[in-house]
């Protein structure tokens, strides 16, 4: 999903929410120019995306509050717990990134505080661009913080490919720069943090897959928290059938199975309808085996060729001689990230990275 693809999401910053921010700001700062704020924040609101609306709130506060940065921060500290949405609170760290570059220590403290109400993942990246080493040193300290929101910020804010933000070229080129942060968090007790670490590592696999694999091969995967991170961090490589990644998940060996009763129904659909994939896996092995089962759809492109997209199904163990039935429904609909074209779409079952069976469906012309 992109910010432009979610018209409902941008309504988080609608006229009613702007009124809420104005009321709460007036409560902590009676001299607040609520009328001026609303006029500035509402101008052209309908045309703005969710992130542009978030930035507009920050800019509007700056436009009407005639105080210096330190004085304004005190007001925003008081405002933060009064806001009625975690996502809305993103304008607070945005204010810090926009107007606090010249006051590093105060701004770092502010981001640490504001992230506990929502997230400062986008804001911290502007400090990484401005003063990478100094900001990274603070984030390394944050990775050891008692608060899970602060620990997550250390990982999420330093992701090389954070969605809705610019890429961090230095981290993308050299993932070792954030290795200490990832190491500190590799067995974190918080699922919120573990998801971020896994996503950070998955980002790195796009540019340095062997670095991630070597890192995880050195981890203690007997720890369930660490194992969870590893499994989710390697998801893109597993979809690609990467042998090292599959081996780390205990599924590096060739699957000894037979695929039966493979069906994709209905045989032909219109755009916006659903298909159902169903099949059985029959073990032909003499011992229990770990299986990573995925499926791929070859989507027809505008030029007539196909491009494959892999989707996760499930990971499980299958005993000797056992069979297992799998069923998955998928909505074939237009997305901002995928445009559909009529024609034959092949569907493939992949087990431990190997394509073992295929079927398909026809997408009809409108």
Automatic annotation (TrEMBL):
Pfam families: DNA_alkylation (PF08713). It comes from the Bacteria. InterPro entries: ARM-type_fold, DNA_alkylation. This is DNA alkylation repair protein. It comes from Pseudomonas poae. The lineage of its organism: Bacteria, Pseudomonadati, Pseudomonadota, Gammaproteobacteria, Pseudomonadales.
């Amino acid at each position: 999903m992109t910010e432009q693809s979610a018209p409902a999401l941008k309504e988080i910053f609608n006229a009613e929410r702007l009124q809420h921010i104005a009321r709460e700001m007036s409560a902590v700062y009676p001299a607040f120019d609520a009328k001026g704020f609303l006029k500035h924040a509402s101008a052209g609101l309908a045309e703005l995306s969710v992130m542009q609306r978030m930035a507009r709130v920050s800019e509007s506060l700056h436009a009407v509050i005639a105080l210096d940065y330190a004085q304004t921060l005190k007001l925003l500290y008081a405002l933060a717990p009064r806001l009625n949405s975690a996502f809305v609170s993103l304008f607070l760290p945005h204010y810090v990134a926009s107007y606090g570059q010249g006051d590093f220590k105060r701004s770092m403290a502010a981001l640490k505080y504001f992230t506990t109400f929502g997230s400062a993942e986008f804001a911290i990246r502007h400090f990484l661009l401005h003063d990478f080493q100094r900001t990274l040193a603070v984030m390394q300290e944050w990775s050891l913080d008692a608060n899970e929101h602060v620990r997550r910020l250390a990982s999420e804010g330093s992701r090389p490919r954070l969605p809705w933000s610019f890429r961090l070229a230095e981290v993308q080129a050299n993932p070792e720069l954030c290795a200490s942060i990832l190491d500190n968090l590799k067995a974190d007790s918080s699922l919120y943090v573990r998801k971020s670490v896994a996503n950070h590592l998955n980002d790195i696999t796009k540019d340095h897959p062997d670095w991630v694999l070597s890192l995880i091969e050195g981890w203690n995967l007997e720890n369930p928290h660490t194992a969870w991170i590893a499994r989710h961090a390697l998801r893109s490589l597993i979809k690609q059938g990467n042998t090292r990644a599959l081996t780390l998940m205990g599924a590096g060996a060739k699957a000894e199975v037979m695929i039966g009763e493979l069906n994709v129904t209905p045989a032909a659909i219109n755009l916006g309808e659903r298909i159902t994939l169903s099949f059985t896996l029959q073990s032909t092995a003499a011992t229990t085996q770990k299986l990573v089962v995925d499926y791929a759809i070859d989507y027809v492109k505008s030029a007539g060729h196909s491009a494959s997209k892999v989707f996760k199904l499930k990971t499980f163990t299958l005993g000797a001689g056992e069979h297992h039935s799998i069923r998955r429904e998928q909505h074939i609909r237009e997305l901002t990230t995928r445009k559909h074209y009529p024609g034959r779409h092949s569907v493939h079952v992949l087990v431990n990275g190997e394509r073992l069976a295929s079927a398909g469906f026809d997408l009809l012309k409108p």
